Amino acid sequence: MMTSLRSLAAILLLLGTFSGCSLPKIVFLHDPLSADEHTQLGIAYDSQQKHDLALDQFRLAIKKDKKHLAAWKLLADLSYRLNDLDSAVSALEKAIELEPASGDSRNNLAWVYLKQGTNLKQAATILEEALMLHPANRPYYLDTLGMVLLKLGKTKEAVSALEESARTLPADKPEVLAEAYDHLAQAYDAAGNKDGHERSLIKAQVLRNKK
Predict the structure, then answer these.
(1) Is the pTM above the cut of 0.90?
(2) Is 80:104 a contact under the CB 8 Å cutoff?
(3) What domains sit in the chain, N to C, each tagged with a CATH number?
(4) What distance in Å separates the CA atoms of residue 17 and residue 155, rounded to the nearest whole number?
(5) Which among 92, 98, 138 is positioned nearest to 115, based on CA atoms?
(6) Helix, strand, coil share (%) of the chain residues, nearest 5
(7) Which residues of the chain have pLDDT under 50?
(8) Residue 173, SS3?
């Protein structure tokens, strides 16, 4: 599963003054804004569902500062949500280049590879790296790894990873747990475990009903 950038966006919004009103498109002949200000403006546009304008602002932030990590991450996140997976991959690769110790960016890149159905062996490798770099997020990374292993045909290993993920994910996040149990149901189905498949689907539905 993708690890969220919502907390990053929320923090950056607190630094700006754009969240309280609807924003028009802003055009400058000479750009007076800093990379941080473009990023804050992009977050505001994104929160108002003005996704094209948000993308423009994140790209302007990067144009101002090619090492602006937050802009690269936010560009990746929005590109993924808009199903522009190639752009998401490019932005995540740059984020990893700028922050080599990031487990989350590796996890997210592996998830995008999974959605593309490409570079699956590389996805498994970078997830192993993520697990070593940021063990605190192991339950989330195992969910992604399990789905990658399932796609690679390694059903037994996939079941093991997804069982641990579902067992160890935070109980106070029912929507995340529901997704994990959906993934576990797929793995049980591939393994021919009908009972496990049905139990996982029921568990996922119960968790969704708690939302």
Answers:
(1) no
(2) no
(3) 1-100 (1.25.40.10), 121-211 (1.25.40.10)
(4) 50
(5) 92
(6) 75, 0, 25
(7) 6-7, 10-20
(8) coil
